[in-house]
Specification:
By secondary structure, the chain is an alpha+beta fold. The protein is about 40% helix and about 25% strand.
Length: about 350
């Protein structure tokens, strides 16, 4: 069975002519291989775009960035066994799996790895909220190949229900740039699928590695309440928005109303890295993004991510990636020349 054999249907409970459900139906009823299809949300209904890219018989990628002007309750039905890697980069989403009555939620910066077999999911889209995310649909045979090449194959799912299994995790910091590369890929048709397939496998690999390192739903070293977890996500958001002039740990703990001990240890448990390491990695990921996609000068990028000199930035960049910042320009030029 290929990904195109998986049947996915959508319907709105409030409006049979709902543009969102009609758009999703057009996307997923299409069975043609190796092509990209998309639809834009009508302006009178909201804004945004939904896109589905069929890479081959094993892999599909879908991307949503939507906002509606009114609340929409929509159901999605998937028939057949398939694996899905869903990543949330916009506002939080909540939905219910109808058969099991299980309530699920995915917050900004989280991912869920699914194994599903005939499910019905009901989701409530709230007005004026930006729902944004990337999903990868993987054929069972290909999934088995990918997982068997890793260090484990059993116990990958830590929540088992009647007709689906999941593992929720915090997105690795490295995922941000790969998601952007997938979403904004500008290559022509003769290379696009090859490039995207490589990026999809890379993204799946680092998410799989994240699952093996730390399961967010099974924090063992420190007990955190729901309020404290929210504080940690607020701390992450503050760090993400202050790359060039980061706050101190003491100031950060006051801003999120969490003592330094729980901030330091909780942050590492949930996001897989200490606060300082996370910030350094975030700087490098943002720098690489600007170098590769916007062709910003090295000196400007160094200043943007908080380095006092280009030489110190270049040294840190080289240590992180194994090549110089200026190589970002050359690598893209060489790749385009080959194709």
């Amino acid at each position: 069975m290929s990904t195109s054999d998986i049947i996915r249907k959508f319907k709105s409970f409030s409006n049979t002519n709902c543009p969102l459900s009609k758009g999703f139906r057009r996307l997923y009823e299409n069975k043609e291989g190796n092509r990209e299809i998309s639809f834009k949300i009508p302006k009178n209904f909201g804004s945004g775009i939904c896109r589905r890219t069929i890479l081959n018989r094993d892999l599909e990628v879908y991307y949503n960035d939507i906002m509606t002007k009114r609340d929409i309750k929509m159901a999605g039905k998937t028939k057949g066994k398939v694996f899905i890697l869903a990543l949330c980069t916009g506002e939080s989403m909540e939905w219910v799996e109808s058969k099991s009555k299980v309530e699920l939620q995915m917050n900004t910066g989280q991912g869920i790895l699914y194994e599903i077999d005939n499910v019905m999911e009901v989701c409530q889209y709230r007005s004026n909220r930006q729902y944004k995310g990337l999903g990868i649909i993987i054929k069972p045979g290909r999934f088995t190949e990918l997982v068997s090449s890793s260090s484990f194959s059993e116990g990958i799912f830590n929540r088992n229900y009647k007709n689906f299994k999941i593992n929720k995790f915090t997105l690795p910091i490295e995922s941000e740039i790969i998601i952007r590369q997938i979403v904004h890929c500008s290559y022509g048709s003769n290379i696009k699928n090859i490039y995207l397939e490589g990026k999809v496998i890379e993204l799946f690999s680092i998410c799989l590695n994240r699952i093996t390192e730390k399961n967010m739903d099974n924090i063992s070293n420190i007990k955190l309440s729901k309020t404290e977890m929210q504080s940690l996500y607020e701390a992450k958001e503050i760090l993400d928005n202050s790359i060039s002039s980061p706050t101190t740990l003491n100031t950060l703990s006051k801003l999120v109303c969490l003592n330094e001990f729980k901030l330091k240890n909780g942050f590492k448990e949930v996001f897989g890295k200490p606060v300082y390491t996370y910030l350094l990695d975030k700087r490098m990921e943002l720098a690489r993004l600007f170098l590769e996609t916007r062709h910003t000068r090295v000196s400007e990028v160094a200043e943007m991510v908080g380095y006092s000199s280009s030489s110190s930035f270049s040294k840190a960049f080289r240590k992180r990636y194994g090549f110089n910042p200026s190589d970002c320009f050359d690598s893209e030029k060489n790749l385009r020349k080959r194709y």
